[in-house]
Design brief:
Distance between the termini: 23 Å
Low-confidence stretches: none
Largest sheet: 6 strands, antiparallel
Helix content: 25-40%
CATH topology: Alpha-Beta Plaits
CATH superfamily: 7,8-Dihydro-6-hydroxymethylpterin-pyrophosphokinase HPPK
Number of helices: 4
Structural class: alpha+beta
CATH architecture: 2-Layer Sandwich
Number of domains: 1
Strand content: 25-35%
Number of strands: 8
Length: 168
């Protein structure tokens, strides 16, 4: 079994409900065990600012799936929950975004999959929930802990605690 961290985000409709449904669907997926989840945070959108703020959380999972298989399951769950991908507006609104932040200490750079997530080290909406789950996790490319990376963010987007741990 491998350890991975997934970031879940939603800013359409019942944002928290979509995160909860994603968590439940992950738990029902063969080869995935949800080990822990962060609190839910309300976060400022990046890129396209004129949209609803996001609800975000990070899940720690154990998985027997390889990274490509895990990506496939994440995309299946996104689609099941109504995700419509718009290649011209990748920062636009969505019912669910489920990203692989980290998978063990692997570094993968393929057209369809990049691990660690290429912008995880720049995003407070991913780093703040990661601080709850594993602040000492070392980014395999940057070679700094999540705690160090978060402390070095120059202009982080706004992130507010929305729901306490255990309610997700």
């Amino acid at each position: 079994m491998s350890t991975a961290y997934l970031c879940a985000g939603s800013n359409i409709g019942d944002r928290v409900g979509y995160l909860q449904q994603a968590n439940n669907l992950l738990k029902d997926t063969n080869g995935i065990t949800v080990v822990d989840s962060s609190s839910i945070y309300e976060t400022e959108p990046i890129g396209f600012k004129d949209q609803q703020w996001f609800a975000n959380a990070v899940l720690k999972i154990e998985t027997a799936l390889n990274p490509q298989e895990l990506l496939g399951e994440c995309m299946r769950i996104e689609q099941q929950l109504g995700r419509k991908r718009d290649p011209e507006n990748r920062f636009g609104p969505r019912t669910l975004d489920l990203d692989i932040l980290f998978y063990e200490d692997l570094i993968i750079s393929e057209e369809s999959l990049q691990i660690p997530h290429p912008r995880a080290h720049e995003r407070a909406y991913a780093l703040v929930p990661m601080l709850e789950l594993n602040p000492e996790f070392v980014h395999p490319v940057i070679k700094k802990s999540v705690f160090e990376i978060h402390n070095e963010l120059e202009e982080p987007e706004e992130v507010y605690l929305y729901g306490t741990r255990g309610n997700f």
